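Project standup — Tuesday

K.O.: blocked on the structure for the chain from last sprint. Re-posting the sequence here as requested.
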Amino acid sequence: MKILLVEDEALLRHHLKTRLSEHEQTVDATADAEEALYRAREYHHDIAIVDLGLPGMSGLDFIRQLRSLGRTLPILILTARGNWQDKVEGLSAGADDYLVKPFQFEELEARLQALLRRSVGLVQARVTAGPLQLDLNRKQALVDEQPLPLTAYEYRLLEYLMLHAQQVVSKDRLMEQLYEHDDERDPNVIEVLIGRLRRKLDTACALQPIDTVRGQGYLFTERCR
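H.V.: unblocked you, prediction finished:
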């Protein structure tokens, strides 16, 4: 999951980016709504976390502009404002959920996972394709309930492909799941990781669900539920 984090409080932004990264998320963090809008135009994100009290363009205006661009990603508002009028205004602007500061990180993580599941049509925290399962909360792959050893990058790619099963996913989109927007990117890394994933899945459960679509990307062919 790639997260766009828009938070002007430096310590909180650093803390959230660190904790989310430790939970195998890729975080694109900025303190500025104008910069965030540029990144939203140029890069793909799966979910956004937006503080309302931003300098310059407000969080509400950012959300409205993001929606006006046709971006449908889930948006979670973070704010110190706790009255119901602010909640209604935020949700009316196009946000999907609302979390009042101070908050526990575990609640933030649970809300993000719920929003992500809802956005891809899932109701549970497990994705299943034959004997293969992903536990989205524990960030773990299992085959017949036994853990499948994957590196953090391998897991991120498998999770994204399974959550977008039956859809062709480009190399660029997969690289965005691994790297922040200003990191150097090597498309050969994707080929290496896909190759390792295929070998591990074939060895563990004789499953070969990842097809290469020439010139376009990769397709997870097993129907997930």
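K.O.: great, moving the ticket to review. The domain at 126-220 is CATH 1.10.10.10 (Arc Repressor Mutant, subunit A). The chain has two domains: 2-119, 126-220.
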